[in-house]
Design a protein that fits this description.
By secondary structure, the protein is an alpha+beta fold. It folds into three domains: 211 residues, Porin chaperone SurA, peptide-binding domain (Triger factor/SurA peptide-binding fold, Orthogonal Bundle), CATH 1.10.4030.10; 119 residues, Chitinase A, domain 3, CATH 3.10.50.40; 98 residues, Chitinase A, domain 3. The chain is 46% helix and 16% strand. It has 17 helices and 13 strands. The strands form four sheets. It has a four-stranded antiparallel β-sheet. Strand 7 and strand 8 form a beta hairpin. Helix 3 crosses helix 4. The longest helix is centred in the first third of the chain and has 26 residues. It is globular and about 70 Å long. The N terminus is likely disordered. This is Periplasmic chaperone for outer membrane proteins SurA. It comes from Hymenobacter mucosus. GO terms for molecular function: peptidyl-prolyl cis-trans isomerase activity.
Length: 462
């Protein structure tokens, strides 16, 4: 139990951590190119059925652990631990293949687009991202696609194995009582912060200007210009613009209703009129139908918001704030019913900790915009409406609520029940995975490079 709240190599890798935005290394987050440290002569170090583990995968993960250690000594068996986790992931993929566990192409595309959009936003622009990796966006996505698909399949397999595992309050308390008192972590100041976000509404003039621009592009295409070329030049959908607006195949009910309805009214090659959805305005071209699936390309334009739109959102939030402060509605209910951020809105407005999913946020790791706002606030107070920009670049306004401010302390069952419950659940899920590995490790073919025969791969014990 001395590893309380510390992820083992297996836990980090089996949880498909590359899907999360909280992974420390940007290389690991994106999952492509630019390995940490020296360049590695590649080769296969292990095979699990038809799945392979490359030496470069092993060494790059080892280098990332070295970087995180900041000069501190690493466990002597760390390479074995990493290789074992990689092999276990390959076992998940091998069994997924034999058990016909698959993920939809649309899910892969959505995750790929989400991850790419996140990194474009973090680095500043597509051009900067391409310069950083010295590769065009399309090539980066092509290199990342297989890895994303594998991670989604691994996660689906884990969900089937341990997804229904839960813990009771009694199990949480038993878990806590097993932890040696000198192993309990010491937490720095943590806060709980709620938010209610209202996205600035687009005024009619901005909408009309956007529609007019798309109608002009439509006329140019009908006059003979290439749809894909114009999509690359004008579309504001970063995921598809680099591919000439091509979205690929989707089944019914996988795209927003307005887009799907317009696309399915078309014949192959035909252009839609301008279509509005929650994402903006689209010009759609149907490419092909295959049974219940269809493929399209589109040009997306988003109307610009202006000061008047943000003012209207701010006035709406100001009224809501007064109602909360007058106790006519709770912050949690106001967030659930009114916030345009459905993730925090569904959590009573509370911003989740991306590391453990709890509502407790370490003060020293807060977004600076939140930190400097709540730094002088009293618990229970609510800010006036503040300007805000959403992760996908939309102008918005929000109010912030400081629900709690917890001073530094050693973990205890009263103040840290959520964290303890999450750790207890993780332990129970790992036990379920261990049992699955023990049952299935003998059902696959395993070959290991002689250099690593002492690592005892696919043994459940780490």
């Amino acid at each position: 139990m001395t590893q309380f709240f510390q992820s083992s190599a297996r836990g980090v890798l089996l949880s498909a951590a590359l899907l999360a935005a909280s992974v420390t290394s940007s290389y690991a987050q994106l999952g492509i190119g630019r390995p940490v440290g020296r360049q590695i002569v590649d080769g296969i170090v292990a095979k699990v059925d038809n799945q392979i583990v490359l030496r470069s995968d092993l060494e790059n993960l080892y280098a990332q652990e070295q970087a995180r250690a900041e000069g501190k000594p690493l466990p002597p068996d760390l390479r074995c631990r990493i290789l074992q986790s990689l092999a276990l992931n390959k076992l998940l993929l091998a069994k997924a293949e034999t058990d016909s566990v698959v993920v939809e192409d649309s899910q892969v595309k959505n995750e790929l687009d989400r991850r790419m959009a996140y990194f474009v936003q973090q680095i500043g622009s597509e051009k900067k991202l391409e310069e950083y990796y010295n590769k065009p966006i399309k090539q980066l996505k092509d290199e990342l696609r297989i890895q994303v698909k594998d991670q989604l399949v691994q996660q689906k397999m884990q969900d089937e194995i341990a997804g229904k595992v839960s813990v009771t309050p009694r199990e949480v308390r038993q878990f806590y009582n097993r932890i040696p008192k000198d192993s309990l972590p010491y937490y720095s100041t943590e806060v709980e912060v709620g938010q209610i976000i209202k996205i600035a509404k687009t005024n009619s003039k901005a909408k009309q200007a956007t529609q007019a621009k798309l109608n002009d592009l439509r006329a140019r295409i009908l006059a003979g210009e290439d749809f894909a070329t114009l999509a690359k030049q004008f579309s504001q959908d970063p995921g598809s613009a680099v591919e000439g607006g091509y979205l690929g195949f989707f089944k019914r009910r996988e795209l927003v209703p307005e887009y799907e309805a317009a696309a399915l009214r078309l014949e192959p090659g035909q252009l839609s009129p301008v279509v509005e959805s929650q994402f903006g305005f689209h010009l759609i071209q149907l490419i092909e139908r295959k049974g219940d699936s269809f493929s399209t390309r589109h040009i997306l334009l988003k109307p610009e918001t202006g000061t008047a739109d943000a003012t209207e959102a701010a006035q709406e939030l100001a009224k809501l704030r007064r109602r909360i402060m007058a106790d006519s509605v709770t912050f949690a209910k106001a967030a659930k019913d009114n916030s345009d951020d459905k993730t925090s809105g569904g959590n009573g407005g509370l911003i989740a900790n991306r590391t453990d999913g709890s509502s407790y946020l370490p003060l020293d790791k807060l977004d600076p915009a939140i930190f400097f706002t709540i730094d002088t606030m009293k618990v229970g107070s609510i800010t006036p409406p503040l300007p805000y920009r959403t992760d996908d670049g939309k102008d918005a306004v929000r109010i912030l609520w400081l629900k709690s401010n917890n001073p530094p302390h050693q973990a205890n069952i009263t103040d840290d029940y959520q964290k303890l419950a999450a750790a207890a659940l993780e332990e129970k899920k790992n036990k379920a995975l261990d049992e699955w590995f023990l049952k299935n490790r003998g059902t696959v073919y395993l070959e290991v490079d002689p250099e690593y025969t002492g690592c005892n791969l696919l043994n459940s014990s780490l």
